[in-house]
User: Fold ABC transporter ATP-binding protein from Actinoplanes oblitus.
Amino acid sequence: MTLTITDVTLTYPDGDARLTALDHVTLEVGRGCLTAVVGPSGSGKSSLLAVAATLITPDSGTVEVEGVAVTGQSRRDQARLRRRRIGIVFQQPNLLPSLTAAEQLQVMADRPSTARRRALELLDAVGLSAQAARRPHQLSGGQRQRVNIARALMNDPTVLLVDEPTSALDHDRGAAIIDLLTRLTHERATATLLVTHDRSHLAGADRTVEMDSGHLTGAARTPGAGCAL
Assistant:
């Protein structure tokens, strides 16, 4: 397994008490596998993603990436891990308005000498080679989200974390984004964890788990090419 979340509990202050966002959650995501976590708003999905991304430290439990426990690492080491091993696709693309599609990717590169070539390869992989020189205002919502996905893959991560990627898109564009993420997961052998409240596009997911009030309540699996479950 590439991403392993074990017995994680996360609470937040809530007046004189504490609110439990994640309650002893355990989840494994293998290379080449797209795992979707579905559930209503407030169920704990975003908290799970933040813990997996090392953006929040849980009260207890562990997160491992490629067999290495990362929850006890320093903030500097966690930031280095995110840059080199974890790609994050945020709900909103947050592209820089002055940069072209290719430049959005290039600024993320660990290796500047190959950044331009790598950026163009990834834009081609997400179907945007013809838009490499366009700025965000010249792209559609679906195209901006594709740039967002390509940017997250810039440093060849082993783990890809995706937050509500279809929330601002219509049904057809949303379905195309999920299809793209599934294809890239299989082709690039990433361990992909996707959180969403929209179940309509998940037929192609390798695995779907339900989250309710901080608990993972079920796991439905479908076979996926190269998916290690």
